Amino acid sequence: MLSQVESHLRSDRFPHIWCPGCGNGIVLAALVRAIEELGLNPDKTVVVSGIGCSSRAAGYLDFNTLHTTHGRALAFATGIKLARPELDVFVLMGDGDATAIGGNHFIHAARRNIDLTAIIFNNSIYGMTGGQYSPLTPPGKRATTAPYGNIERNFDIAELAKGAGATYVARTTTYHATMLEKLIVAGARNKGFSVIEAITACPVGYGRRNKMGNGLQMLLWQKEHAVTVKQAEKMNPEELQDKIIIGELYRGEAPEYTAMYEEIIARVKSKNQ
Amino acid sequence: MSDVVEMARLMQGNEAVVEGALAAGVRFFAGYPITPSTEIAELMAERLPGLGGKFIQMEDEIASMAAVIGASLAGVKALTATSGPGFSLKQENIGYAAMAEIPCVIVNVQRWGPSTGIPTAPSQGDVMQARWGTHGDHPVIVLCPASVREAYMLAIRAVNLSEKYRVPVILLMDEVIGHMRERVVLPRAGEVEIIERKKPAGEPKDYYPYRPDEDGVPPMANFGDGYRYHVTGLVHDEQGNPTTDPRVAESLILRLHRKIYDHLDDVVTVEGYQLEDAEVVVVAYGAVARSAKRAVKDARAAGIKAGLFRPVTIWPFPEKEVAELAVRVRHIIVAEMNLGQLKGEVERAVQGRVRVTGVNRLNGELITFDEILSAVKEVTSDAQSG
């Protein structure tokens, strides 16, 4: 499996910066396998990331890679994709990155339905700055800035993306790595804004403070709490209370932004002739 | 001759920026509407598709700056336009463009501030924001037009300089220049040099995206052109990889400075009027320079040896040129629509060799020629009595 991934890694950049037990590497590997599966040309593939632990992933990948400012990855990616729609653009973000500081860009990228594949590493915490609560930290959980327990409600990324206009929305966990790869493949094939939420573990910044054990125990927690869309259909709301529904959650139809802009160009040019 | 007459047209300053930028090859605009820069976005939206270019109205100023950087990295010359409050929002990403060496142009049509201030009133309050608005130390290039035609010419120059030195360039206008309409005769296509960024020539495997040529500027491969590399705002080595090595950090930031400061003769331009025998010189930029020119003419008519010194490039500040002025004139007056932002720089260059007086206005109105003329008369009569 490593050999399959290795050809797209900048091996000289290793060891990576992630802590033992961190799930980010699993998401990274799933992305690389998905790109392989999609058969994309590495020279035409762009990986954009924001700021945070997860966003360092871009630097380990042998594509055109752009590590941007905190929260702004989707806005940078929008410029790249609109300027050169023939490029395949993946955007890697953390949960705080995508939904707090980058929340506005997230909903507008979805609304435009611009053809980007966004992968959100959701570890429920700000990892790189040492464990502050994010919009994805569940209520009651502890963080360095929520020492008495978080009183904010957390976003449902999938509902947020769907409501804002994304045309492909999926969620899974790092325990379900093969499913993650498949969802990324499907998201990239969708001509529009695709969001794949990857629930991942931060044993140091989140797990330790909330007594969830080490990386392995957190992976097992993901296994125990995940139910597929199919399973969820047969479950009642009480049964679903602390469960994470995984799989393809939504597919919509909407015109894609860059394609519509190309039509405007063609229309204006033909009128000018 | 008839050609030239045919090309004369009535044009607004903001419109001139658009036409200049398009002539320079700009094919991407991302922006967010803000008075008094809005016409730039509106005209770009209209003009770009016909040229195969792209316009996008982003969700905010921060996103606009980010999209401009993304487009530039994908190989398309890109520009954004804003005004004071929006300029503040763009700063983090302007710093990113400086650090990652991504060519782009930011037009700031200044309005009265601070805060929301008077959106429709002119000001020159962003002189220091243009220089020091971002965090950290990096050089900037800031150009300041004083006429509609110059707005056109400097838009081209801003694009050229940004491509040549891989640096964000700021076109710092004021509301008067942005909204004024003048008859202009534009140069014909081919009469103005258009500069393209240097591209790498060798094999992709041998490409070091941040290894500079002798001029301090590394060749730039566009995303999608087969040279895969990493771009980051972190301190990075010649391969683009992040590092915290203090030697790399220092040499990177010094190179960013050197690539501009080693080329001051190319970057810095100034304009002089009646400077040869001047005893009192008015330093002014942007719209105020027009009032100053009239004041100089009237002073000359009154027998006062006055002159005008107009920095076209305000950053890097034309320190050498002002220092030269200081050894041969008796008074310097700096007229500006703020409390003395550029005056401080003039004083720094003058180093006490000559008295520097400010004519300042910050009530949202343009400084008039008679205000400047009175100041000229005052300093010269002081000298006679003293």
Task: Note down, in words, how this protein is organized.
The complex is a heterodimer of chains A (273) and B (386). Chain A has one domain: Rossmann fold (3-Layer(aba) Sandwich), CATH 3.40.50.970. Chain A has an 8-stranded mixed sheet with strand order 2-1-3-4-6-5-8-7, with helices on both faces. Chain A has 12 helices and 8 strands. In chain A, 40% of the residues lie in helices and 16% in strands. In chain A, helix 4 (95-101) crosses helix 5 (103-112). In chain A, strand 5, helix 7 (177-189) and strand 6 form a beta-alpha-beta unit. Chain A is an alpha/beta fold and 273 residues long. Chain A is globular and about 70 Å long. Chain B has 386 residues and is an alpha/beta fold. Chain B has 2 domains: 9-184, Rossmann fold, CATH 3.40.50; 271-385, Rossmann fold (3-Layer(aba) Sandwich), CATH 3.40.50.920. Helices cover 41% and strands 19% of the residues of chain B. Chain B has 14 helices and 15 strands. Chain B has helices spanning 2-7, 13-23, 38-47, 61-73, 84-100, 127-132, 148-165, 175-179, 246-261, 264-267, 288-301, 319-328, 341-350, 369-385, and strands at 8-12, 28-31, 54-57, 78-82, 104-110, 141-143, 168-174, 181-185, 230-232, 270-273, 280-283, 306-311, 313-315, 331-336, 355-360. The longest helix of chain B has 18 residues, at 148-165. Chain B is globular, with a radius of gyration of 21 Å. Chain B starts with a helix and ends with a helix. Chain B: One of its GO terms (molecular function) is 2-oxoglutarate synthase activity. Chain B: Residues 278-372 form the Pyruvate:ferredoxin oxidoreductase core domain. Chain B: It comes from Desulfofundulus luciae. Chain B: This is 2-oxoglutarate ferredoxin oxidoreductase subunit alpha. Chain B: Keywords: Oxidoreductase. Chain A: It comes from Desulfofundulus luciae.
